[in-house]
Amino acid sequence: MSDPICCVCQEPAGPSAKELGGRWYCAAHYERATKDRRGLWQAGVAQIVGLLALVGLVELLVALVHPQLEGVWLMVASVVMALVPALVWLSFFYQQDRLEPEPKGYVLGVFLLGGLLAMAVALPLTRDVFHTASWLGMSPLVNIAGSILVVGAIHEFLKYAAVRYFVYPMAEFDERIDGIVYGTAAGLGFATALNIEYVLRSGGVDLQAGIISVVVVALAQASFAGVTGYFLGRAKFEHRPIWWMPAGLALASALNGLFTYLRGEVTRGGISLTAGGGHNPWPGLILATVVAVAVFATLSILMRRANQKALAQTAGGAQ
Ligand SMILES: [Zn+2]
To answer: Which candidate, 158, 168, 88, 167, places its Cα nearest to that of 126?
Structure first.
């Protein structure tokens, strides 16, 4: 009988070979692939709280100081604001990373790639090829369908591509949970690009409404990419059925589209859509927070359960 080969290092796995989802692992790579990282979930919760605190801080500052920013200064302040969720995330990530290191270059690379794909592909495609602005508002049904099948699908496929065709085949992607780490990085890069584009297109934004919008987009885009990342993480280390990855992308696209539609509905208050006064961003922030908490709690439970199952199999199996 030939010795099973570890699917990560391609070395003979020896007598301590372990099986996970139909593939063989050496003892060391099995342990890495199924590692549960409590610190990561704690950092995730801390980031959501941190972003909400940031909204509170900006609202308070603007209410107290009443800054009269115009022109270039408003633009600079708006762009800085658009960058803040990414900076908050990176600082939490690097903090947590001292305990359980992840190759920083790749995390940053996925983040930048997500942003680049948003700028170079997602925005031109939805705006100039699909002209979504001209028809999404036709009816609620058209809006929901278009938000899922066009906008959601384009967004989520590009975030998927940023991970799948860059870091996924590499040795640095060595834990199932890495899918969620890199997915979130791609989603946040994507969100940052959308936010910067929004700020530049508007020529600077009202800071109080702007900070809410920036945080909503960051929470939402990172959450949906986290879903795709979960599917990617399991696909790399286990044999999954052929529908696995398409199902993951479809789920992320559906969440993205439904969120975009619902956000539009809950923030549209009052009489006029164009006269600013009819727009209330707060319900959008509540919606985004609920979505982010629900997605990360679900992924945390699913991942922990998968890892416990693997451990139980090991304990009950050979030796
Ligand atoms: Zn190995």
So the answer is: 158
How far is ligand 1, taken at its centre, from the CA of residue 102, in Å?
18
CA of 238 to the centre of ligand 1 (A): 14
Give 30 Cα–ligand 1 centroid separation in angstroms.
7
Q: How far is the CA of 101 from the centre of ligand 1 (A)?
A: 19
Q: Rounded to the nearest whole angstrom, what is the distance from the C-alpha of residue 236 to the centroid of ligand 1? A: 14
Confidence of residue 102 (pLDDT cuts 50, 70, 90): low
Q: Give the torsion sign (CA, 283, 266, 194, 189).
A: positive
Contact of 55 with 211, CB cutoff 8 Å: yes
Task: Give me the amino acid identity at 162.
Answer: A
Q: Which pair of structure tokens corresponds to residue 268?
A: 């549209």
Q: What is the pLDDT of residues 10-58, one digit of tens each?
A: 889 888 888 888 888 888 888 888 877 777 777 788 889 999 999 999 9
> What digits encode the pLDDT tens for the residues 173-231?
888 888 998 999 999 999 999 999 999 998 888 888 999 999 999 999 999 999 999 99
- Nearest residue to 156 (alpha-carbon basis) of 29, 258, 305: 258
Could you tell me the two tokens for 144? 């929901």
The 3 state secondary structure assigned to 241-276 is CCCHHHHHHHHHHHHHHHHHHHHHHHHECCCCCCCC
CA distances from 219 to 49, 134, 176, 256 (A): 11, 27, 22, 11
Ligand 1 centroid–CA 28 distance in Å is 6
For 24, phi then psi, to 5°, come to -100, 145
Task: Give the residue among 225, 220, 230 at the shortest CA–CA distance from 305.
Answer: 230
